[in-house]
Amino acid sequence: MIKDFGQTAEKLSGNPLGIIALFIVLLYGIAGLVLSSSANFLTQEERIPLIWLLVIFPFLVLFVFAWLVSQHHTKLYAPKDFVNDEAFLRALTPTEKQVKQQKEIEKFEEEDSSSSSSINLTVASPINTRRHVGVLYEYGLAEDLAIAHLKSTENLNILQDQEIRSGNQSIQVDGLSVSENMLTAFEVQLIKAEYINRNLRYRMADIAYKAMQLAAFSRNSKAKLVYVAVVDRLSKEIEEKISDKFNQFSSASVVPIELKILDFDSIKETHGEDKVA
Question: Which residues contact 171 (CB under 8 A, 6 or more apart)?
């Protein structure tokens, strides 16, 4: 029996979920064993804490487990729990998310190249620093609102800020929806209306390249990339420009690319800045 328990414990210790289950079984089992075998030798004061533990512990475990699943579900699995290495993903840390957004802002900097140094947080000027923080905040807000909008309007379970890894290769995306034999990645970009003609071609080329990267992680399953353009002061003319340029770059993609255009002001009114987690 001890040998069987050891083998079971070894299997359970392979991932965080198993370790949690092993801890629950051991703690509850030891408390029950102590109470049942030593009840006649314990005073009332000694028995009461054990009884309360046996009564309250299951509810406490249920609450903690529900919280873990709802808030930290991406951290509850080991790499071996996925079907293969190409399906392994993890949530980006807040620092990694900020670095990703900062790189994207640098690539699509909308002001003249002479002001490109203002994007660096190490610049001493408080005006430039405030400007960078403002741009970073807007970019992050656009991503959060766009993902929230897609979750609510299309009834999708989207994991935000994910990294897919396979060996030494990795790709970071703003959102990821995983279903049986289907991998859907979401990439969100904030576009200012006044700069629509300046770097639109470069933006679409970047999305096409992201789709090409995604193809490397979908050899045994279907995959697609959803490009979400969040436009500040969206108009019919801007929508047509984005669609035309998108069609030029997406038609030859190995992985299907789907375009969604959202109005920044509209999704801010619908979801509200204070409602986005």
Answer: 163, 164, 185, 210, 213, 214, 216, 217
**Of residues 214, 210, 198, the one with CA closest to residue 249:** 210
pLDDT tens digit sequence for 75-131: 565 555 544 444 467 788 888 888 888 888 887 765 434 334 344 444 444 445 555
Whose CA is closest to 190, among 107, 111, 264?
264
Using a cut of 0.85, tell me whether the model's pTM lies above it: no
For the chain, give every domain's residue range: 2-79, 83-275
Rounded CA separation 228/160 (Å): 14
Alpha-carbon dihedral sign for residues 33, 39, 41, 46: positive
CA dist., res. 253 & res. 11, Å (int): 42
Q: Do 109 and 119 form a contact (C-beta atoms < 8 A)?
A: yes
For 141, residues 6+ apart whose C-beta sits below 8 A from its C-beta are 268, 273, 276
How many helices (H) and strands (E) the chain has is answered by 8, 6
Q: How many CB atoms lie within 10 A of CB 212?
A: 14
